[in-house]
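Section 5.1 Outputs to date
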Amino acid sequence: MSVVAAVSRSSAYTFTKPNAGAITLVAGLGVEGDVHAGVTVKHRSRVRRDPAQPNLRQVHLMHAELHDELTEAGYPVSAGQLGENVTTRGIGLLGLPRGTRLHLGAAAVVEVTGLRNPCLQIDRFSPGMLKLVAGRGEDGSLILRAGIMAVVLTGGVVEPGDEIRAVLPAGSHEPLAVV
């Protein structure tokens, strides 16, 4: 079974987000009380480029299995420390196609928009960690493992222990790209 392992939010621009007992997702906006919530983009580097662009990064989801792997490699990390809002366990987030709908708990639904583009803040958090979450495949292709981004379609409360159900989009599936 796929579950929500932890939920996190921050009202300020901080790299890490403190864990919470629950978060409320608001349709079309994101995580209530989180600095990245909004109709238009809120990530500072993207705001500098075009503050009117739509916010396709309302909710950041990351798999707890990545935390486990990083910890085993000597980079101890736990839920929320890499800036995610929803930490999952038991679902292959990185393999989901664009447009997948994730039902989180009893009511909330988010739609997957793309991959998180890991940045140098990861190395500021823990020097050397960036190379473990962003790299190149044998064919030279870029491999990004720092989670996925989504928009909120249906609001609701999300808590640790909530079940996650994925509904793949109809038709052909488009692989995730950076948003």
